[in-house]
Amino acid sequence: MAEGERHSPSDSSEDVPPATQNFIVPKKEIHTVPDMGKWKRSQAIEKLVALLNTLDRWIDETPPVDQPSRFGNKAYRTWYAKLDEEAENLVATVVPTHLAAAVPEVAVYLKESVGNSTRIDYGTGHEAAFAAFLCCLCKIGVLRVDDQIAIVFKVFNRYLEVMRKLQKTYRMEPAGSQGVWGLDDFQFLPFIWGSSQLIDHPYLEPRHFVDEKAVSENHKDYMFLECILFITEMKTGPFAEHSNQLWNISAVPSWSKVNQGLIRMYKAECLEKFPVIQHFKFGSLLPIHPVTSC
User: What is the SS3 assignment for 174?
Assistant: First the structure.
């Protein structure tokens, strides 16, 4: 990924969690419709990458089983059971001991971020849970705003790699996929962050992401193009047919307009969709209570 220097974070009371914070195990609250640079705080990032490396290793240790059904390999449930059992221990390796009370709450979002063990599927709701996991770590001070580039292009990128390995190894079904009319079967956020990474790029334009040569030569450096490469590896046929939404987006003249449009689309297609948000869990760090007006 592109590199850049970051300034040292200034001291702020917002970085310190309240001393009287009462942590709770998140639960469902919606039941009805009505540049990698010289990072000053790289330790927490490295611990998160190590956590994700552990999940990756467990996939290698849990090969798919022989079964009649092509999709939804049941070995995923064995893999998930391991995470379910070890999630709090994994999170405890990232969270300092004086914040140990937050571990059960934060761990819920980690478990929610890897797919559903009953349906053996994965979708944007699970992706959102990992974003919530990272958000919780920010709110308790483990991560800081100054870490934001590393959070996206190191931690979240590693998360994507593990999720793609899960999807391929266990042939997971897309959760709530809109098929050819959806942006992607599994992900959304990397298209938003990936398009922002390409704003004002000297030569790569939106039209280039449907160019096989351009993707092949640049995917390792750009999150958006890595997403496109994965799609072309997983799907067959003309790109315009299996990924019509993205094909249309490639005609947008600038990355800034692509980015703005994707943000609006994410809000409408993910954050405001009951089938997605009904599964989201709320706790003390991410409460459902309305924002109090000033």
Answer: strand
Q: What is the mean pLDDT of each run of 10 residues along the chain (294 residues)?
A: 45 53 75 47 84 98 94 97 98 96 98 97 95 96 90 95 97 78 88 96 96 96 96 92 94 98 94 88 90 62
Quick check: 34 and 134 in contact, CB under 8 A?
A: no
How many CA atoms lie within 13 Å of 84's alpha carbon, on the beta-carbon side? 9
Single out the residue of 163, 159, 116, 118 nearest to residue 137, CA to CA: 159
How far is it, in rounded angstroms, from Cα 91 to Cα 28? Answer: 21
Residues 6+ apart with CB under 8 A from 84: 111, 117
Q: Which residue type, as a one-letter code, is found at position 120? A: I
Kindly tell me the burial class for residue 141, based on how many C-beta atoms sit within 10 Å of its own C-beta (0-12, 13-18, 19 or more). middle
pTM: 0.86
Query: How far, in Å, CA of 84 to CA of 107, rounded?
Result: 9
Please state at what angle helix 189-197 crosses helix 255-266, rounded to 10 degrees.
160
